[in-house]
Each structure stands twice: as C-alpha cells, then as structure tokens.
Predict the 3D structure of the following.
Amino acid sequence: MKIIVAIKQVPERDAQVRIDAAGKWIEEAGLQWALNESDAYALEEALQLKEKHGGEVVVLSAGPERVGSTIREALAKGADRGIQIECDDLGSRDALGVAKLLAEAIRAEAPDLILTGTQSDDLGLGQTGVIVAELLGVPHATLILHVEKSDSGVTVKRELEEGWFQTIEMPTPAVLTIQSGGNKLRYATLMGIKRAKTKELRRVTAAELAVDGAPVVVLERVTLPQKQKSTQILPGSAKEAAAALVEKLKFEARVL
Amino acid sequence: MSGIWVVLEEREGRISRMSWEALAAGRMLGAMTGLTVNAAVVGAETAALAAEAAGKAIAKLARVEHPLLAAYTPDGFSLALQQFFEGEKPDYVVFPHSYQVRDYAPALAARLGRVLISDVTAIAEGPVFTRQLMMGRLNGAYRPTGGGTCLVSVQAGAFRADEAQVGAAEIAVFTPAIGAAQIRTKPGERFRGSAQTVDLGSAQRIVGVGRGIKDAGNLPLAQALATALEAELGASRPICDNGWLPMDRQIGSSGQTVAPKLYLAVGISGAIQHLVGIKGSQCIVAINKDADAPIFEAADYGIVGDLFEVIPALTEAVKAAKQ
C-alpha cells in the first residue's frame, strides 16, 4: 500500500503568539514550530498500516524552507521519503488554493491512500483533506480514528458527536482525515533520526505545480478576542488566591 | 441570485438545535443585506422536517429529496446540494458547523468553485465573518472575494436560536438526479464506543483536567480536589486520547455535554471543542499558567498560576471551609 501523508508545520502549542504589524497574521520571527497534532496521528496510522501490509509512506508538506525540519521529523519516525512544496505565500492562499497544490503533487504519485489530520492547530479550517479528495475525484471520510484494509479498499471508524461512532466502507484510492487519539504516537528513535538524514526529500516549487492560486476567501484582519464575560482574576500567592476563590464560590456564586 | 439559503440538519427525526442557530445567523445576514432568507432540508423523506420548519419566518422551504439520501453520505449530500444550488444561485448558504457539515460542505464548496468559511462565531457589517485562529487565542476576519455564492458554517452556540419568529414558508420539492454508483462510501449503523459508566451530564460539580496536568501520575492531585469538592472528575480530549482517564470522562463536542453548578477547569486552555461542552455551567473557574488562555474568556473566576501549587492550596482551602 502506498500512502501519502499530508502534514502541516504549525506554531508550537505553548508558543506565545503575537499579531504582526500589519494585523494580517501572527509575528513568525522567533516562533518555535512543530508538526500539527492531528497530522501526527495521520502519520502514525500510516506507519502502522505499512507495518501490517507493507508498502511505502511518503510525507508531503507545503510551506517555506523551515517546513523541511518537520518533514525530517516525520522521516525520523519512519516515513520513507518526503516531498516539500516550496511556497513562501501559503498564508495568502485559501483552503482551495492550498488543496490544489497538494492535489497536484499527490496526483503524480498515484497513491492508494492519502491521510491527513482533521484540522490544523493554527487556522483550524478543517477542510484541506476534503477538498483534496474532491480535486482528485476520489472518495473521502473525515474524523477517522482507525483504518482497516479490506478486499476492495478500506473500512474506517468515524467519530460522530457525543460519543457515537460509525463504520464506513470505501474503495481506494481515498482521502481520510484522521482525528487525534486513535493511536498512541511513537517517538523518533536515535537510529531513526540518523537514518532520516539520508532519506530522500524532494523539493518542488509551487510555480512548477502550475495551479491557480487566486483566493476566493481572504483573511483580512487578525485581532485579539473581545472578552465576552467579566472574569474576576484572583491575585496573590497560590494560598491567597485559593482562599479568595473559596470565599467567592461560597458567598458570591453560592455553588459550594 | 436567490438570497440566503440555510441548510437545516436532521437529528433523531427532528431539526437539530444547531440548525435553528444557523437560521438565526441567516436571518442576521438577511437583516444586514436585505436579502430573503430561505431554508432547505435534505433526506429521503423530509415531510416531517419540512412541517417542523414551515412555521418559521422563512420565505421558501426546499425539500431536497431522493431515496439515495436516506443515510447520510458525503457524495449524496454534495451532489444533491450542488444541483440544487446551481439552479438557485444563492448569495449566501449558511450551515450549522456540525460533524456532518464538516464532512461534505468543503467538497460542495469546491464543486461550486468556492471555499466554505467554516466555524463562524460572528457576522459584522460588510458582511465580514469572524472565526477563531490559533485554537481560540486569536480571531480572524474573513471576507469572500470575486463574487459567486458565499458559503459559511456557524459554530454551535455562537448565534441564539430564536423561537418567537413565526411565518408560513412556501414549500417546494427538489429531486436531484443521483445514481447509486455515484455514492462511493457505504456507511454503517451508528454505535456507542464504550459503556457509559459515569453520567457527567447530571453532576453538580465537576473538576475538569487538561494537558496542563502534564502526566497521568499527577491526576491524584486533581482527584483530591474533586473529592474535597464532592465533584466528579472530567477531562479535555488530550487526557482521554492519552488514555490517562477513560473516554466516558471526556467533556466537549466529541464527549459529554455538562451543565453543573460549578465547573473548575485546571490546566485546560479552552479550545472551542471543549468550551461547547461546558457552556451550560452555572459558574466556571479556570486555573491556568497562561493568562492568555481562551478558558479565561469563558470563566467567571480565574487564577493565573502554577496548578501544582494552586490545586493543593485550593484543596486545603475547600476542606477548611467545610469545617
């Protein structure tokens, strides 16, 4: 089974994010970057499928030069090779524009399965995988926790709301967007990190893929959320704050 | 162009609550733009849903009906609505941001050459659509460009579903042309993951634990606080993903929805998927080291600090107050 995993590099979870001077995006200088969480689960699912059925796992990511380090991280965990779509203007492309880039790169590889995370931790659009499927003309399923190979394709476990699940059968090739939590994530071993350095990382430019990048949706402005509620922050040491909170809960909110 | 169309979704035989919220968002757009507000229901047998919606202030109500729409599939729903909207050419389409919509609406938008503005929390003059970025730490203002239909999905709880608006919609049936071969996925029956052993929905007090607890070995700290408060222990998704607490303790859109008198969030940053699950709480307390964490937006009381110092202090203070 040949599997492509589309991954995204996003600011590290605990990174302090600030709005940039133009108010259009965040200040990227000095940020730490990491593999998007649900993409890490997509990679894990792909690696487990390969361990069971053989084949190849190819990681694909679009973005500027720094994205190479996240692809190497995936190679260190066990992916066989990487493809980077070099693109410095990812932020000015909308979900359709980014999906077009990924779809063109995937088309040339003709994989059996395309996995990606359910949504990114930065933009959180939750659409890229579905649009890629649409552009490639293949079926898809979202919020997938588990993938089984079947005679005619795959059988997947889909998460629904409020603790419900559903099993879906579908032919391959297909796109699956993977939800976090389906597997336990592996760490890269020292040997894996060593090996990753010699694995193939092919670079292709966005221009070479020749897709129309004109957006139909534009992110005009980034702002801090307005406070909806007046939150009383209780100051002081842990002990003082705790004592003040108990007073408030008992006599003001009356919930103790 | 044919104004605003709101896609109403079925949940257990009735129109879902989130759909009425989407209708409220559609009406808000209508008031801003002067466009008429219409609605569509989709399925194999939509008479009952149509009857439920017909009494609302909706100009036209479309029953998009086909036997192949009996069970939801992304192919069936995208194809049916693509055909319907290619005929109607709406200015705006508004969806509830449900798991089902997340599954097919991006594909439908792509077929129409558009991009869905997903998970919208507010609509301002323009119209400009606000959605959250960076897991709720920032807001982004989005605007469609280049004409054509603008598709948006609205976040659960972001718009108030108003019951008062009454009217008499003009009902019409639309039958899309769908062939069985065009539906490529075969959905199975819905099932529950594991036996529900704890009903957080009826708990009076809950201590919710998040990523900030760092390690399963630190959970007894939170448990001690829960015991002192006579509270149940709940958790955000990552805690259950890691297997530190069973899935039936998970609170949020994919877990349980709770409405306790007191919800005390420790080390939970407050991603929207968690916040929708605790909105019904009477009093929310947040303890987090990051003063900018979105959980503080939802909290009545907050302590900015190291939970490993604050939790033991709070446990002692609660015990002392009971004596």
